[in-house]
Amino acid sequence: MTTQATLTVGQDAPDFKLKAYPSSEYSLSQFKNKKNVILAFYPKDDTPGCTTENCAFRDDLSKFEEADTQVFGISCDDLKSHEAFSKKYNFTHPLLCDLGGQVAKKYSTFQEAKGYPSRKLFIIDKNGKIQKIVDGIPSNNDLLDFVGNL
To answer: How far apart (Å, rounded) are the C-alpha atoms in residues 67 and 64?
Structure first.
């Protein structure tokens, strides 16, 4: 069993490079000095809580873009699952494929016994530093207020 280090506010966010739907690939480092990043880990595509969270991002995506913030959903589901989930609910934000949970492990959110991440959200500033960690589903208004002050 792999031990996961706990991340804290102020630390450098672990970099990653993952395939995504609807685009090809993203890395955290490509946003350094350009945009804040919301990295929203969720357990599985097309389940009630995950659908609620991603639909909320969809509905306020233009507000996040105005706040210079890139939103990512991230789970251990594959591209085919992300495509079906995204098309079903008309998502326009990328869904990252963390097959095997390697990135979830770096972010201390992978649940070994279940094989998928817990619901946890990270706000990462333009310098690549973790500025906020939230368990569960926060309100978009709270997130927008926070990123608006970065």
So the answer is: 5
- pLDDT score of 120: 95
Cβ atoms of residues 85 and 72 within 8 Å: no
Active site residues: 50
Residues 89 and 54: beta-carbon distance below 8 Å: yes
What percent of the chain lies above the pLDDT cut of 90?
85
Gap between the Cα atoms of 65 and 51, Å rounded: 20
Q: Does residue 1 carry a pLDDT above 80?
A: no
Q: Is residue 11 part of a domain?
A: no
Is pLDDT above 50 for 74? yes
How many structural domains are present in the chain?
A: 1
Provide the residue type at 7 as one letter. Answer: L
Residue 95 and residue 117 in contact, taking contact as beta carbons nearer than 8 Å: no
Q: Does 39 map to a domain?
A: yes
Q: Is the pLDDT of residue 14 over 50?
A: yes
> Do strands 17-21 and 69-75 pair parallel, antiparallel, or not at all (unpaired)?
unpaired
- Give the separation between CA 66 and CA 84, rounded to whole angstroms: 27
